[in-house]
Amino acid sequence: MPESRNLDNGQRLFSVKDLPSSVLIEDAHKDREGNVHVLFQPENHSSVFSQKWLRENCYELNSHFEDRSEKQKKLWQKDSFDNGLPFISYESMRSDDTSKVLALRSLRDSGFFVLNDVPTQDGQVLKVISELGFTRETNYGALFEVRTEINPNNLAYTNLGLGSHTDNPYRDPVPTVQLLHCLESSTKGGDSILVDGFKAASILRDESKENFLTLTSSWINYRFTDSKTDLRSRVPMIELNDNNEIIKVRYNNRSIDTIKVPKDKMRSFYKAYRHWSEVIERDELKIQFRLSEGSLMLFDNTRVMHARTKFSKTGKRHLQGAYTDLDGLYSLLNTLEGKNK
Ligand SMILES: [Fe+2]
């Protein structure tokens, strides 16, 4: 072990090509503590494995790491939150690790949480990110303003309703977490809607395996352009892992580019796309709530779709948004749960 890994950080010190192509085990025995000692030839290299390590790393038990799959999540729809939505006090999340763990578990399992009583100060959304991870800057800046603008470069900056979508599928990699912080809210309408995209994809699979497979195997283009920007991606709407489990969804009607799938697949693509759109718009999948002043919602942008109802031109609605990434937030959760020990 000391020869093969750095003692301080546990990182491996040799590459696979340093190993002989044929390796033999000359001797293997268990000591009194249960550790297994293995002598490898021709290198005459001795390794010691604890029972715990062997169990955790046994590939026959298939206990592989996977924290993004639908199998690791609690899929939800409108009636899943009879005990209330995951609203958490910002002050308690800041001062108490137990609340922070609850918030991050809610993000991991349900794909979102909402913080209450966040100070309505300019740039506060970036402070919240700094307490959890790191800001992912984009062409919109470190943060972006969501309020009505004259000649907006994005429909988000109008008073129109927005259908359910994930943000920025035209980026590769996509920002995996979005935060929206409400600074002012005196308009009529403008409610927030969330839909569990994994649930919507699983319903599509239940109703039509064929349509589901079409969307997992059709790679399509998303695009965003303005005078200074031209962002493009080529990705599937529903992404699976090696066990055919859903791990990511991308859905954004506003930024889907011309569909370029093979001619003989075009009809089946549109059939599947229409079917999934219809599932996503079902009322029984939507949770709707008002993001009041000082509330901040944080959601997994690879899973949870967001939407808003249209709002009046009178009154003010001002949100500040920003992006961060799941890996940093999961890292914090794993550390708080002691998984790095
Ligand atoms: Fe959005």
TrEMBL record:
Residues 91-323 form the TauD/TfdA-like domain. Keywords: Dioxygenase, Iron, Metal-binding, Oxidoreductase. The keyword Metal-binding applies. Its cofactor is L-ascorbate; Fe(2+). GO terms for biological process: carnitine biosynthetic process. InterPro entries: AlphaKG_dependent_hydroxylases, GBBH-like, GBBH-like_N_sf, TauD-like_sf, TauD/TfdA-like. Pfam families: TauD. GO terms for molecular function: dioxygenase activity; iron ion binding. Belongs to the gamma-BBH/TMLD family. This is Taurine catabolism dioxygenase.
